[in-house]
Amino acid sequence: MRQSSGIGVLDKAVGVLRAAAAEPCGLTELCERTGLPRATAHRLAVGLEVHGLLHRGADGRWRPGPTLAELSSGHGDPLLDAAAAVLPRLRDITGESVQLYRRDGTHRICVATAEPASGLRDTVPVGTRLAMTAGSGAKVLAAWADPATQRAVLADATFTERVLVDVRRRGWAQSIAEREAGVASVSAPVRDGSGKVVAAVSVSGPIDRIGRRPGVRWAADLLAAAEALQHRL
């Protein structure tokens, strides 16, 4: 029997973590393993997911999240450390807003940004969670996602499977007023040391300023930044 701390909500949350760590599980299985009501189990799992202690995959099952690895290693996130060094330079080169996105199931989360000091900006706050149905960052992350995730994304996306093929061939993606009216962006994949795509780095700004072909203008600088991030990883 597990020990009780005397703090009910903490004990329940730990129970949910242990249940997901034993084997990835959906809500029904989570309730069966913990004995918690559905509403309670769902509320705790979603809360743990927000903090990165759990991660819900494309199959809808919860499993241990990245924050657990970060806490156990005693070190910060190497991707964020790399971003702190690379993103400001890309911002200075382009004069536009720069973002770094990670995929979380069929969504992407902004994990780092670098904003110009003045002028009209396309501000995406760190922590923003966006559906992967539109935008150049979504295309990049979807292009190198597993087949199940690709199918789930394409069911509601503004782009097609053929577009993802072109993204993989070209090595970058662009979008014109897809995610937000009046905004254009271009994105490239960021790989880790093994070559796996772990993030997407993006440059975005007003169409009136960066034009309707942002890839032609910024792709080379973006790819150089993505390579710099990979070297630091």
TrEMBL record:
Pfam families per UniProt: HTH_IclR, IclR_C
Gene3D superfamilies in the record: 3.30.450.40, Winged helix-like DNA-binding domain superfamily/Winged helix DNA-binding domain
Keywords carried by this UniProt record: DNA-binding, Transcription, Transcription regulation
Stored InterPro entries: GAF-like_dom_sf, HTH_MetabolicPath_Reg, Tscrpt_reg_IclR_C, Tscrpt_reg_IclR_N, WH-like_DNA-bd_sf, WH_DNA-bd_sf
One GO term of the biological process aspect: negative regulation of DNA-templated transcription
SUPFAM superfamilies, sorted: GAF domain-like, Winged helix' DNA-binding domain
Span of domain HTH iclR-type: 7-66
Single GO MF descriptor: DNA binding
Stretches assigned to the IclR-ED domain: 67-233
Top-rank taxon, per record: Bacteria
SMART domains documented for this protein: HTH_ICLR
The name this protein goes by in its record: Transcriptional regulator, IclR family
Taxonomic placement: Bacteria, Bacillati, Actinomycetota, Actinomycetes, Pseudonocardiales
